Request: fold
Amino acid sequence: MELRIFQIDAFTSEVFRGNPAAVVPLDSWLPDVSLQQIALENNLSETAYIVPAAEAGAHYELRWFTPTIEAPLCGHATLAAAFALFHELGHAGDSVRFSTRQSGVLSVTREGELIRLDLPVYTLGAGETTAQLEHALGRRPAEVWTAGPKLLCVFENKRDVLELAPDMAALRRVDAEGVIVTAPGTKHDFVSRFFAPNAGVDEDPVCGSAHCALTPYWAKRLGRDTLSAHQVSAREGELACELHGDRVTLSGKGVTYLRGVITIPD
Reply:
C-alpha cells in the first residue's frame, strides 16, 4: 500500500526551524497498530493522520501519534495538517474544521501566511516542587502548576530555561505526560521549552499544546490576553497567543520540507 506523506515545519517560515510534523492523508482509518508503526518509523514528535469526516460539522477527522503513544492534543501537528490541506492538497477556502477523539472540534483558519488554531485551554491547578522533579530538571522552579496531563514549571529568568539540561531518565519517573518550563522573555512576553520523555519525545521543539497552559498563566500574570511567545529549543519557534475564555488561539506559519510516498504492507 502506498500513502502520500508530507513533512511540515510548523511555527516557522524557515525549513530546519520550528517543529517538524508528518502529515499522512488517508481515505479511511488504518488499524491503530499501523498508525503507531508509521509514527515510530517517521520518528518525529508527531505524525498527524487526516480522514474525510463522515459527520456534519467537520471537514476531516484528525489523530496524532508520537513514536510511542496516541496524543490527546497536538498544536503543531494540527497546524501542519491544515498547512498541508491549504498548500498541498487543494482544500477549498480559508478554514478547516477537524474532529478529534479527545479534544473536540478544532477550527483552523488561514489569514495570509498565518495559520490560526482554536484550541482548548488547560486548566491550571496548584502543584508542588518535589525533590524528584528538581533533580530531574537540575534546577528548582519558582512555581509549579498542574496543567491537564502536564506540569508547568516557572523560572525567574530566560537564562534559567535556556541552560536547563534535564536528566531524561529521571524525568521519566515524574508522574506527568510532559513538563513545560517557562520564564519571562526579553523580546517576547515569555519563553518556554517542553520535555516529554514519557510520550516518546525527549524535547518537543515547539509545542502548541503546551501553550494551552502557558497562555492562561501568562495572561493572568501580565494582565492581558494577547501575548507573544518564543520556544527556545535548538530549532526555535514563535507563536502569537490569545486567550478567549476557555479557548486559546495560537497563530504561526508553516513551510513544506518534504513531499513523498511511503510503502506499508497491505
